[in-house]
Design brief:
Length: 338
């Protein structure tokens, strides 16, 4: 079988590899679609210092089961499935509390283990989500990034009609936005990139505001009738944004950091404290989030296909992916099909 290997930043090669052997608890899947994530882009660009090459990327994966191990009970040959890429230990404190998304020894397919950019992927049954009949593979490969938003908004207590500001209008920001809207929130998106804002307005039912314009704060006040936001979700991974995100909260609001970076955050405690805000972070997602997203898609409250702007067949991915990471290509969400 063929595997697309990222051998060094910006360099892909196809390798012929033996098919993996299906263990007791394993499910072997013929991969049909893999979406490309922002973290894949960082690996391709060599911007993630912790990333180890060579690696087969791909943690947003869907396909069809071709073989199951003798101990597998929940899926069978021919079932269509999506990958749940978190590999958790099952016995640390986080795992025992059901927080498998922040297991102390967490690894991910496509990051620490080879992922879905290969013709066959074998993983334990607990890493696969059974799909409803008839769901397109590319749609199913979008479930994982949608669960990131589902888990993120699941941290927060806002309700129907509450106002939510999502800072950073990339696919993960939009994943948070569509999940917040599905819960009935009034969502506003903020970004520094006008082209991206215009794209988002053309595909999704949200208003946008440009962080860099002089009237930014006035526009946030206008959207919230001067009360500011019940929740602010910062997906930028940029300290310049994260240091100020709390300023857009209403009294008693909730601040959530989705984007992550390796620098210090600083702000004035007194002003922050006077709002009595709550501060949350979020990592990855759990099976519950996958089931939630499946039901939202089934109810028509989330349309994964709206995210996808670029599609390439697997045979051309080695040439296409280095182009997709360039901003001028205009990729919002790209998908590799098999
Ligand atoms: Zn991802
Ligand atoms: Zn664990």
């Amino acid at each position: 079988m063929k595997a697309l290997v990222l051998t060094a930043p910006g360099r892909f090669s196809y390798e012929d590899r033996p098919e993996p052997v299906c263990g007791e608890q394993d499910v072997k899947v013929r991969v049909e679609a893999v979406c490309v994530c922002g973290s894949d882009v960082s690996a391709i660009l060599g911007r993630n210092a912790l990333f180890i090459y060579p690696r087969v990327l791909g943690h947003e994966v869907a396909g069809t089961v071709t073989e199951v191990g003798p101990a597998v009970r929940g899926v069978q040959k021919g079932d269509r499935v999506a990958l749940m890429p978190c590999i958790s230990c099952g016995h640390c404190r986080a795992c025992r509390k059901g927080k498998t998304n922040c297991c102390e020894s967490l690894r991910l397919y496509g990051v620490k283990e080879d992922g879905g950019m290969q013709e066959i992927l074998c993983a334990p049954e607990k890493n696969w989500l059974k799909l409803p009949a008839g769901m397109e593979a590319r749609t199913a490969a979008m479930i994982e990034p949608l669960t990131i938003g589902a888990h993120a908004v699941g941290r927060l207590s806002f309700g129907e009609g509450d106002r939510v500001l999502v800072i950073g209008a990339g696919p993960i920001g939009m994943s948070c936005a569509v999940n917040a809207a599905a819960r009935g929130a009034q969502v506003l998106l903020a970004d520094t990139n006008e082209t991206r804002c215009a794209f988002c307005r053309s595909r999704f039912p949200f208003g946008t505001v440009n962080v860099l314009e002089d009237q930014y704060r006035q526009k946030l006040e206008a959207f919230t009738e001067g009360e500011m936001f019940d929740a602010v979700i910062d997906t930028t991974a940029a300290p310049a944004s994260m240091n100020h995100a709390w300023e857009y909260l209403c009294q008693g609001g909730e601040l959530l950091f989705v984007g992550i970076h390796n620098k210090d955050l600083t702000w004035n405690d007194f002003s922050f404290h006077m709002k009595e805000p709550a501060l949350f972070t979020t990592r990855n997602s759990t099976r519950t989030d996958y089931e939630k997203v499946l039901s939202l898609i089934g109810d028509g409250l989330i349309d994964p296909d709206r995210f996808i702007t670029h599609v390439t067949p697997f045979e051309k991915a080695a040439d296409e992916l280095p182009l997709w990471v360039r901003p001028e290509t205009g990729v919002y969400k790209g998908v590799i099909t098999f």
